[in-house]
């Protein structure tokens, strides 16, 4: 029953995410996906090292934000615009995945 509730919350979050960005901008979706990947990577690396979910969540979010800022700095150096909304989209991907991973992890039996 608990997994069913978590699955419903997960799907509800996905359906609401599309309303966050106006005009369904493709670039923001790519940033969200990149933030999810970076956040998952940061979470996993931190959790493997420290075995602490709180530290892993913070690391995952920070990793996604660093990836977003790095991408925007790269774009700015190549003559593009520094878009704060892209950083927000990347960070949202990291927040989403780092709070979802602990819900899906199996609890250890003692």
Please give the radius of gyration in angstroms.
15 Å
Secondary-structure-derived class: mainly alpha
What portion of residues belong to β-strands?
under 5%
SSE ordering? HHHH
End-to-end C-alpha gap:
22 Å
Please, what is the oligomeric state? Answer: single chain
Q: Could you report the average pLDDT, rounded to the nearest whole number?
A: 83
Query: Which regions contain 5 or more consecutive residues with pLDDT less than 50?
Result: none
How many structural domains can be distinguished in the coordinates?
1
How many E-type strands?
A: 0
Shape by Cα distribution: elongated
What's the helical proportion of residues? over 70%
Major beta sheet summary: none
How many separate helices? 4
Key terms:
110 residues; mainly alpha
Topology:
Blueprint: H1 2-17, H2 26-50, H3 53-77, H4 84-104
Description:
This protein is mainly α. The protein has one domain (25-104). The chain is 79% helix and 0% strand. α2 (26-50) crosses α3 and α3 (53-77) packs antiparallel against α4.
Give me a quick take on this structure.
This protein is mainly α and about 110 residues long.
């Amino acid at each position: 029953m608990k997994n069913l509730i978590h699955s419903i919350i997960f799907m509800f979050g996905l359906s609401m995410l599309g309303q966050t960005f106006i005009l369904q901008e493709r670039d923001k979706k790519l940033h969200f996906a990149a933030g999810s990947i970076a956040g998952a990577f940061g979470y996993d690396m931190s959790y493997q090292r420290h075995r602490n979910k709180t530290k892993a969540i913070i690391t995952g979010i920070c990793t996604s934000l660093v990836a977003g800022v790095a991408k925007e700095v790269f774009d700015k150096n190549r003559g593009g615009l520094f878009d704060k909304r892209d950083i927000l989209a990347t960070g949202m991907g990291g927040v989403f995945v780092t709070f979802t991973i602990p819900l899906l992890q199996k609890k250890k039996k003692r």
